[in-house]
Write a sequence for this structure.
């Protein structure tokens, strides 16, 4: 019985050379790496390619896979078999263990016997970041069972996300990883349809009608705490930023909320509006293209 | 040795990491971190005692750099360029998404 799933994941034929496999993996990795390509399909494709390359990139594992298929790493009277496969692909982020980083730990802790930290990434909403939230994190931990096989154990962890957390910030849950290591949770914030986050500040694009920008006055604007009235100065410009102090992400240094004005025309002018515009066109001497020399 | 508590573990928000802590965090050695600093991938803040400290944004960047170097076979100069371009792209994508409305 032959299993070709790993070859398919890399898009190479079964007789592909080692170089072709490496090239195919690198190409897939560039395109679908979760740090480069944020789409969920990319994550799946990258994990499949990485799992495939883990086996096909190693001549011994590849030979075993060609012979035994998916069950290539099952117990067999085969001395010298590599049982060190990480099995970490079930995580959002795999443990980092390239050879180049190995020597440091070998020196510090001696080979083996060291406490292993685990890293996962967790996405929350902007609302959660502002108000704090409680979530249940479902982890899949690799376990070696009595027969020496790798199995995945599901474990739920209570995660209290503190108020005012920023994207990229790490939470440490002490002793929750394998063998008493720490579990690190990197917080990501889902893109919000209204606000964008810059440091602790929030930005919102605020559409205004041409006459609102020209005359100034109060307009309604959204804030994470609910709608407020914003006073627009007269002669406001497109792209002008207005600051609402302390309405950004909470924290020791409370962030601000910025409204960026975007002048928007009505989709269709009524007859009356058209007359008024025509009157304006007759009476106004304003050349918006003066800087272009025309 | 810390005790493992099954469910309600203590949660700390990491404010900064020292050089040694960042090395453990990224499973890397000091030379690697120094090279990242040399290429401007991460920038430490220096306290009066000349000890480096890394803020959350830089901690996240260092880890991302480690992942990209491992998975894409990049060197530090390459990863520095990639991270800058990804940040630029993300900023532009966010802007575009808002303009489309």
């Amino acid at each position: 019985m032959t299993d070709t799933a790993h070859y398919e994941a890399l898009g190479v034929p079964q007789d592909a050379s080692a170089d072709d496999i490496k090239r195919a993996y690198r190409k897939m990795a560039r395109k679908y790496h979760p740090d480069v390509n944020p789409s969920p399909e990319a994550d799946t494709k990258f994990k499949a390619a990485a799992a495939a390359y883990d086996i096909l990139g190693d001549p011994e594992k590849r030979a075993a896979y060609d012979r035994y298929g998916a069950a290539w790493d099952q117990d067999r009277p085969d001395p010298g078999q590599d049982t060190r496969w990480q099995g970490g692909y079930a995580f959002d982020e795999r443990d980092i263990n390239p050879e180049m980083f190995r020597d440091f730990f070998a020196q510090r802790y001696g080979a083996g016997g060291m406490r292993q930290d685990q890293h996962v990434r967790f996405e929350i909403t902007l609302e959660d970041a502002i108000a704090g939230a409680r979530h249940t994190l479902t982890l899949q931990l690799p376990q070696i069972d009595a027969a020496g096989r790798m199995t995945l154990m599901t474990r739920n962890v209570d995660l209290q996300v503190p108020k005012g957390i920023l994207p990229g910030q790490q939470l440490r849950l002490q002793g929750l990883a394998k063998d008493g290591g720490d579990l690190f949770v990197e917080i990501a914030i889902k893109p919000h349809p209204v606000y964008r986050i810059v440091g602790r500040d929030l930005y919102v694009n605020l559409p205004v009608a041409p006459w609102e920008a020209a005359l100034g006055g109060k307009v309604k604007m959204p804030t994470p705490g609910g709608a407020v009235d914003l006073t627009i100065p007269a002669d406001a410009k497109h792209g002008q930023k207005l600051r609402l102090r302390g309405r950004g992400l909470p924290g020791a240094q409370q962030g601000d909320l910025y409204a960026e004005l975007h002048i928007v025309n009505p989709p269709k002018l009524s007859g009356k509006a058209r007359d008024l515009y025509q009157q304006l066109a007759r009476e106004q001497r304003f050349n918006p293209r003066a800087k272009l020399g025309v | 040795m810390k005790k493992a508590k099954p469910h309600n573990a203590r949660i700390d928000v990491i404010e900064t990491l020292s050089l040694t802590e960042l090395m453990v965090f990224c499973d890397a050695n000091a030379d690697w971190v120094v090279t990242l600093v040399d290429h401007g991938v991460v920038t430490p803040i220096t306290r009066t005692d000349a000890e480096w400290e890394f803020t959350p944004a830089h901690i996240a960047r260092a880890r991302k750099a480690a992942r990209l170097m491992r998975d894409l076979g990049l060197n530090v100069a390459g990863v520095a360029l990639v991270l800058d371009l990804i940040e630029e792209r993300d900023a532009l994508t966010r802007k575009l998404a808002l303009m489309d409305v």
Remarks:
- The longest helix of chain B spans residues 76-99.
- The mean pLDDT of chain B is 85.
